[in-house]
Specification:
This protein has 680 residues and is an alpha+beta fold. Helix content is 42%, strand content 9%. It contains 21 helices and 21 strands. It has a 4-stranded antiparallel beta sheet, with no helix packed on it. A hairpin with a 5-residue loop joins β10 (419-421) and β11 (427-428). α10 (305-323) runs antiparallel to α11, α15 (440-452) packs antiparallel against α16 (458-475) and α19 packs antiparallel against α20 (591-606). Bound molecules: 1-deoxymannojirimycin. 1-deoxymannojirimycin binds next to α21. Ca(2+) binds at residue 667.
Length: 680
């Protein structure tokens, strides 16, 4: 062998089998020129004209494209940890004072904030270092395609047509609010409710309301209005579902139609225990009859293991517990056994998708990874199924997942990566840590499994406590202006001051842990984070939180919270009201009820659809045209309204119902019993 000559090197590099790369290029250029010369003058002029046109269009559309790219990329927010400005330190305990801005209610009272929220610029910008690379994994959140972050969030807003009869100031003039506002979008009518007046009392309502099955939750007189308002909201949502989407997965309230995800009557099953808890007997009985006569899992359909477990299996199990009706346990058993093929993988880490009719399972088309939160947030349900059926296989498969994850290398002070490989059983895409999408309920279920099993499984507790320490050390920061505490994200040692609304489950979970004897500083952090989640609502013009908030680390008199164009949507998510429920239960501080009440009013004002149902919206910053998305997620009925109801209900009068030392709520708000004796 001899070293290759320069000519050999060039020909190898340019990939020409004959070593004639340069010559070939020359010939190609010559023949192009010859062809151009062969064209008639007319043909040449036409081609030049077309090229000029293309150039003009390109120049004209550049600014809007640039705007879109900016919205899609949040790479500029990534901060190198070593670049954090002085004073931006983790909040490590009670010492950190929360100086929250004065609460602002109603669309017009927030800090000066136009429909376009300016990015922090110039001196207000924290150190904005570019990351080495920016994976788009953050854009792929858990959930159905429709739940994924919409990079074109403003599309619907743009072509929405609206008429706001009262000028849309919302809340400035109480009298105006008394007149129902009619907002017409795309030919559909959204009816905004009264927001400043209490709804009719229970006495007034009772005449029209169907009799309750069993009054499961008694309410004290002072709270009747709010509880009844939640019942009203549920009835309104259910009306739309019943009329236009009965037996289907989700209501599309604007087009008065339905959407199918798995074809399992998702909204209906997710709502069963909510109806029972709210005492809506007639609605419950109708739904039960559908489960009895129509619901069949013997269908050739691919379902997502996690979503089906938390919504359908969880919903059936909790309804069985509340009602004692065998029908629901039978259905749960049938479904549980059909989900089991997901666990037949080389690593025992389950696949994301199962065909419940064929008994086959597979990962998503593009990867052999599963999402970490998905494989570690099915345990409460499978363990409970084993306990009820005395069939150990369900708890065995999910306990094995926890055992594997417990001893897996690649964690960062208890924080876990977002993906795990179903072949190797190892974490993948290491080095990215978030409490938001794809990791959130891993942390929630560590604590809740420990509680479910009577606080006897030490590995779960150990992992949970270590994770909370990791969160405090690496992810918790405070904003510069008002010292709002938030949980950011970490990617390869770069900190991003960005928090998903999904993270707002954390105050509730931390409070639940503290209530169960874990360190009091967990509760301190819960109080601070609860305030921040509240601010994510009240600082928006609609009083509703965006899907993702960005926080300002710079000490300045600028804003604390920013929202990017792609993150302005609200999917009727429950996490904040869920945490408010826990915070109120444990502190009895009525401000948490008031915050929940404000949220319900904002839902009524900006997402309630005339004719029935509530809709996700595109833009929480635009009270004039929030941009309905035409979708009511099943968790709005399964979780959001249930937690609001429980928040306003007088729990003291319900010593035996849904007490937090008797029940643990799964991540879809389905209450499951805490076991009377430890797991075997
Ligand atoms: C729900 O399905 C569950 O709460 C899940 O854990 C997270 N996402 C949705 C609600 O936002």
């Amino acid at each position: 062998m001899y070293p290759p000559s320069r000519k050999d090197f060039v020909s190898l590099t340019l990939g020409d089998p004959h070593g004639n790369a340069y010559n070939n290029g020359k010939h190609r250029r010559q023949s192009c020129w010859r062809k151009w010369k062969q064209l008639s003058r007319l043909q040449r002029s036409l081609l030049l004209f077309l090229l000029a046109l293309l150039l003009i269009f390109g120049l004209l559309s550049y600014p809007s494209l640039r705007q879109q790219w900016r919205g899609l990329s949040d790479s500029e927010d990534w901060l190198d940890l070593k670049d954090l400005p002085p004073g931006v330190n983790p909040v490590l305990g009670p010492a950190a004072a929360v100086k929250a801005p004065a609460p602002v209610v109603g669309p017009h009272l927030g800090p000066a904030q136009g429909p376009e929220v300016p990015e922090p610029r110039g001196p207000n910008i924290a150190v904005m270092a570019k990351p080495p690379f920016k994976k788009k994994t953050f854009l792929n959140m858990r959930g159905p395609p429709g739940l994924q972050r919409d990079a074109n969030a403003s599309d619907t807003v743009a072509d929405g047509r609206k008429e706001l009869k009262d000028g849309g100031d919302g809340g400035e003039d109480k009298d105006k609010d008394k007149d129902k506002k009619i907002v017409s979008w795309r030919g559909a009518v959204i009816e905004a409710d009264q927001v400043t007046e209490a709804p009719p009392s229970a006495v007034q309502k009772d005449a029209a309301a169907p009799p309750a099955a069993t009054v499961l939750v008694e309410v004290s007189p002072g709270r009747v209005d709010r509880v009844e308002a939640v019942r009203d909201a549920f009835r309104h949502a259910w009306k739309g579902y019943k009329e236009f989407a009965w037996g289907h997965d989700e209501l599309k309230p604007i087009s008065k139609s339905f959407g199918e995800w798995f074809g399992l009557g998702l909204t209906l099953i997710d709502s069963l225990d909510t109806m029972w808890i709210l005492g809506l007997k007639e609605e419950f009985d109708e739904a039960k009859s559908w489960v009895d006569k129509e619901l069949s899992f013997n269908r050739n359909v691919d379902v997502n293991l996690f979503e089906t477990t938390i919504r359908v299996l969880g919903g059936l199990l909790s309804t069985y517990h509340l009602t004692g009706e065998q029908l629901f346990l039978d259905k749960a058993k049938d479904l549980g056994s059909r989900l089991m093929p997901a666990f037949k993988t080389p690593s025992k880490i389950p696949f994301s998708d199962v065909n419940i009719g064929k008994g086959t399972a597979h990962p998503p088309r593009w990867t052999s990874d599963s999402t970490l939160a998905e494989v570690t947030s099915i345990q409460l349900e499978f363990r409970e199924l084993s306990r009820l059926t005395q069939e150990p296989q369900y708890q065995e498969v999910v306990n094995e997942v926890m055992r594997l994850v417990h001893k897996l290398p690649g964690k960062h002070d208890g924080l876990v990566p977002m993906f795990i490989n179903t072949n190797s059983g190892q974490f993948s895409h290491k080095g990215v840590f978030t409490l938001g999408a794809r990791a959130d309920s891993y942390y929630e279920y560590l604590l809740k499994q420990w509680i479910q099993g009577g606080k006897t499984e030490d590995d779960l507790l150990e992992d949970y406590i270590q994770a909370v320490e990791g969160v405090k050390k690496h992810l918790v920061r405070q904003t510069g202006p008002s010292k709002l505490t938030f949980v950011g994200e970490l990617s390869h040692n770069r900190f991003n001051p960005k928090m998903d609304h999904l993270v707002c489950f954390l105050p509730g979970t931390l409070a639940l842990g503290a209530h169960n004897g874990l360190p009091v500083d967990h509760m301190d952090l819960a109080v601070q984070l609860m305030e921040t989640c509240h601010q994510m609502y009240v600082q928006m013009e609609t009083g509703l939180s965006p899907e993702i908030a960005h926080f300002n680390l710079q000490a300045s008199d600028s804003r604390d919270v920013f929202v990017k164009p792609a993150d302005r949507h609200n999917l009727l998510r429950p996490e904040t009201v869920e945490s408010l429920f826990y915070m109120y239960r444990f502190t009895k501080d009525t401000k948490y009820r008031d915050w929940g009440w404000e949220i319900l009013q904002s839902f009524n004002k900006y997402t309630k659809v005339s004719g029935g149902g509530y809709t996700s919206i595109n833009n929480v910053l635009d009270p004039v045209n929030p941009g309905p998305r035409d979708k009511m997620e099943s968790f709005f009925l399964g979780e959001t309204l249930k937690y609001l109801f429980l928040l306003f209900s007088d729990d003291d009068a319900n010593a035996d119902l849904l007490r937090l030392d008797k029940y643990v709520f799964n991540t879809e708000a389905h209450p499951l019993p805490i076991w009377p004796s430890p797991p075997k």
